[in-house]
Automatic annotation (TrEMBL):
It comes from Spiribacter aquaticus. It comes from the Bacteria. Residues 58-154 form the VTT domain. The chain crosses the membrane at residues 57-79, 99-116, 123-144, 175-191. The keyword Transcription regulation does not apply. GO terms for cellular component: plasma membrane. This is DedA family protein. Keywords: Membrane, Transmembrane, Transmembrane helix.
């Protein structure tokens, strides 16, 4: 059963939609505060299909993601009591507690690394708000971390362009399952 190839085909169709940029911005915004699907799934095929627009798409993704991060920060700052049961129900409670501990030790650097890494960024935006970390460093770290990640994706796939598509399609199942294994290992590690 080819789970990831079917998803890949669907995302490629979405990436070709006339309003794909709006969909990408909406996904980027939502993922930073409450939605589980990372924007890379749309950004990558859009950059591959339109290499000349790759940097513009990375900028859009970064700005929308940081705006969503601001919403996550406000959720943590103003409404943590309402959101905490949802975090626990989704299984993110151990990751949230780990994030809180990291903020005490490393502050700015935690947001920077979380913005770049596959760790669910929304956990860190909410934790940053809950701990009321300084606003400007949070914003700067978010811009740098998210920007580095999305510009890297855009640069690699924009450089590869349409000629990368056959290679990506051939290895999509392996890439997908490898990503799931890495994410599960990360969740297990963070919940210890």
């Amino acid at each position: 059963m080819k789970v990831f190839t079917a998803l890949y085909d669907r995302v490629l169709r979405w990436a070709g939609h006339p309003r794909a940029s709006w969909m990408l911005a909406g996904l980027s915004f939502a993922e930073s505060s409450f939605f589980p699907v990372p924007p890379d799934v749309m950004l990558a095929p859009m950059c591959m299909a339109r290499p000349r627009r790759a940097m513009r798409l990375a900028t859009l993704t970064t700005l929308a993601s940081v705006a969503g991060g601001v919403l996550g920060y406000l959720i943590g700052l103003l409404g943590l009591e309402l959101v905490l049961p949802l975090i626990e129900e989704a299984g993110y409670a151990p990751a949230y507690e780990t994030a809180r501990g990291w903020f005490v030790d490393w502050g700015f650097w935690v947001v920077l690394v979380a913005g770049f890494s596959p760790i669910p960024y929304k956990i860190f935006t909410i934790a940053a708000g809950a701990m009321a970390i300084a606003w400007l460093p949070f914003l700067l770290a978010s811009l740098l971390g998210r920007g580095a990640r999305f510009y890297l994706v855009a640069a690699v796939l924009g450089w590869g362009g349409p000629r990368m598509e056959p290679w990506l399609r051939r290895y999509m199942e392996r890439i997908g399952w490898f990503s799931v294994i890495v994410l599960l290992a990360l969740v297990v590690y963070l919940s210890r």
